[in-house]
Predict the structure.
Amino acid sequence: MTRSKLAKFAAVAERDNVIQDGDALYGRMAGQWRQIRFENDNPLVLEIGCGRGEYTVGMAQLFPDKNFIGIDIKGERLWKGSTRALELDLNNVAFLRVFVEQLADHFAPGEADEIWITFPDPRPKDRDIKRRLTSPRFLNIYRQILKPGGLIHLKTDNQDLYAYTLEVLQERHAKQLLYTEDLYKSGLREHTHGIYTTYEQRYMAEGIPIKYIQFQV
């Protein structure tokens, strides 16, 4: 491991806006995120697999009356997002370093108001279907921690993941289902708040249409 990575891991470990294994509050936040971390009763929005936290931070800037938590297992990525949140003095942002499979251990039933999944690994191999973040396995976890009627949003460049997700949702008779194969040529672009991640801009520059799905579980 490089010195740069070690330095970033050490910085993340000292930050109040990141919760990870080893912290005093780790594993004790379920049902208490608003009271303990944010000290308000505002809606709670999660970004699953947040990477550098570009969407989490972007939404936090646009919606100061909501709380945002970026979730990822990669410490180096969380360093980037947490650094940006600190630079912008955003008190409505936090990051949680856990595997997505562990979400129900860190959020109470119905605690989250909304979930975003932005450009996840499409897991193209058949043996990895269960690891796709829109597989039934994960949808069941999201349903547990979301309030009734809470929305989930998916943005992806990957056609196969888009088609797979639609198939799963239609089999489950998902509600409030909106979708498009070309977000920025559709009437749904307003649902994504005009935030573009670094990867998204790269895909768009290559002429790859951005797919979007909104749904309830």
Q: What stands out?
A: The two ends are 40 Å apart (CA to CA).
